[in-house]
Amino acid sequence: MPISMKVSIDFSQFKQALSQLGEKHFRAAGMIAVNDTARQANNLAVKLVAKESGLKSSDVRKRVRIIRASRSTLTAIVRGSGRALPLYTFNARQTKAGVSAKAWGKRKVYRGSFIATMRTGHVGVFTRTGDDRLPIKELFGPGVAGTMGRAEVRAQIEALIRERLPINVKRQMERRLRAISGKARLAAAAKSKLR
């Protein structure tokens, strides 16, 4: 089940900037600020999930994505998705006692388990469910969505969003004001040259 975190602007905090810039420029600056904040939250989410779960950052990055803000919505979403990942993904190695894998950031031996390749080509870590050779079941480690939804990981990401969003909005508003005032000066200078 996917887990999502929203990044959006509260207009009541930025009434002065809205009056200075006008709606069009405010929305453009807000969109950039929200997308910057979402990108920063995405990077932190990848880092935290990789550390907590024991996955490589590149594997986590494939499963965490950003739904970008537009000028009309000014809301971006950082979404982690995917089910629990096969234990083989966590640097699994066959040992005499079973399979050793580094899920949840700690190496552990899963006694009596084995690495096998199925007819479909899928490689996984399996264990027998009874005394006979069959049936067998595959073992899984943590998933990106589950790890991202844990309270401590979620709290850190939300704290970053609360901290960075006002800073990014302020920076983009100032940048937009400088651009507008610079264009006004250029237009005035061009007008005076024409006279």
From TrEMBL:
InterPro entries: Phage_lambda_GpZ
Pfam families xrefs: Minor_tail_Z
Superkingdom as given in the UniProt entry: Bacteria
Name of the protein described by the UniProt record: Phage tail protein
Organism in which the protein naturally occurs: Dongia soli
Lineage, uppermost ranks: Bacteria, Pseudomonadati, Pseudomonadota, Alphaproteobacteria, Rhodospirillales
